[in-house]
Amino acid sequence: MLPLLEILAKRRAAKCAGVEIGAADPTRKEETKMTQSEAMLGLFVGIGLSAACGFRIFVPLLGMSIASMTGHLELAPGFEWIGSPLAVTTFAAATILELAAY
C-alpha cells in the first residue's frame, strides 16, 4: 500500500508544479505484480474472515460494545457511539434475533 501512496504523492506534487504526467514521466515506477504467495495469502485471509463472520454479523459488534463499556477497548474518535448503552442494547437485541432466526 505504501508504494501506491508514494506514487500518488509524486503525481500530486508534479501536478502542483505544473509538470505533465504521462508515460514519459521519469519518476514513474514500473508496476509491480503480486506474487503467487501474496495472492494465496490474500485469498486465505478473505475466506477466513468471511467464515469467521458467517451470518452472525452483530456478535463482533456486541463484543466491541461491551469491551468498550467495561474499559477494555478504547474506541477511535467517531466510533464512540459503539460503546453507548443504546448501542449495547441494540446490538444485543439484533444478536438475539439473529440467533433465534436459526
Can you put this structure into words, describing what you see?
This protein is mainly α and 102 residues long. The protein folds into 2 domains: 1-28, no CATH class; 55-102. The protein has 4 helices and no strands. The protein has helices at 2-17, 36-53, 58-69, 85-100. Helix 3 runs antiparallel to helix 4. The longest helix is centred in the middle third of the chain and has 18 residues, at 36-53. The two termini are 40 Å apart.
Task: Provide tags for this entry.
102 residues; 2 domains; mainly alpha; flat
Give the % helix.
Answer: 55-70%
Distance from N terminus to C terminus (CA atoms, Å) equals: 40 Å
Give the class from helix and strand content and strand pairing: mainly alpha
Poorly predicted runs are none
Count of individual beta strands: 0
Quaternary status: single chain
Mean pLDDT: 75
In what range is the share of β-strand residues? under 5%
Overall shape: it is: flat
Number of domains: 2
Query: Could you describe the largest sheet, including whether it forms a barrel?
Result: none
In N-to-C order, the SSE pattern is: HHHH
Number of helices: 4
Radius of gyration: 22 Å
